[in-house]
Design brief:
alpha/beta, five-stranded parallel beta sheet, four-stranded antiparallel beta sheet, 27% helix
Length: 212
């Protein structure tokens, strides 16, 4: 799987978020997108997901030599971000089952196995509205990382996680990142991106005079 960016730029009204970005994302070469809060990391992830259209430049998604249209790329993506939706009135079991109705899990894992890998098997029948913020983040990350996809996008994945949970997250990504495009947006660098082979500093793609 590849994602090719050629002179990509994104502007809101008159302000450029980033500009003139050339890069190629490839399977088995995880990439970190680095920058401070509000710098445009999440915007770039949304462009990569096909959710946002770049103001200028070209983005192409390619698998085994064939291009995938922006209308269909969502089928190849799993994403964990602060905006990722969970159903608070559903139990963990119900949330996993609902996700599974759209995407299967790696290694054909079932609901119980997924919950166990999240470390939340004892909480399977509790509604998510009673979960702590750290537990909810485990659910978001677990669904995205263990979900069957060619592209894995993670936006500030260690938010709300303690040191033990950050180690769990790193171990889980390392286990399931084979043959996938993996991209992590981070302002913390090492704790979230230690497995990344290259990085994009979003500040290097801001026109002169733009403040962050």
């Amino acid at each position: 799987m590849k994602i090719k960016l050629e002179k990509i730029g994104k502007r809101y009204q008159k302000e450029w978020i980033f500009k003139d970005l050339d890069f190629q994302f490839e399977s088995n070469s995880p990439v970190a997108i680095l920058g401070s809060n509000g710098s445009g990391k999440s915007t770039l992830l949304q462009v990569l997901s096909g959710y946002l259209t770049p103001t200028e430049g070209l983005i192409q998604w390619e698998k085994e030599g064939s291009l995938i249209s922006v209308q269909h790329i969502y089928k190849s993506i799993t994403l964990a971000s602060p905006a990722s939706a969970l159903y608070d009135d559903f139990t963990l079991r119900e949330n996993i089952t609902f996700f599974q109705s759209f995407k299967s899990f790696k290694n054909e894992m079932n609901v119980e196995e997924v919950a166990k890998r999240m470390g939340l098997e004892a909480q399977m029948d509790k509604q998510l509205k009673f979960y702590s913020s750290g537990m909810r983040q485990r659910v978001k990350l677990g669904l995205a990382i263990m979900g069957e996809s060619d592209i894995l996008l993670l936006d500030e994945p260690s938010s709300h996680l303690d040191a033990k949970a950050i180690q769990w997250y790193n171990d889980l990504v390392l286990e399931f990142m084979k043959d996938r495009v993996v991209c992590v947006a981070s302002n913390k660098e090492e704790s979230e991106t230690s497995f990344c082979k290259s990085a994009i500093d979003i500040l290097n793609h801001k026109p002169a005079g733009v403040r962050v």
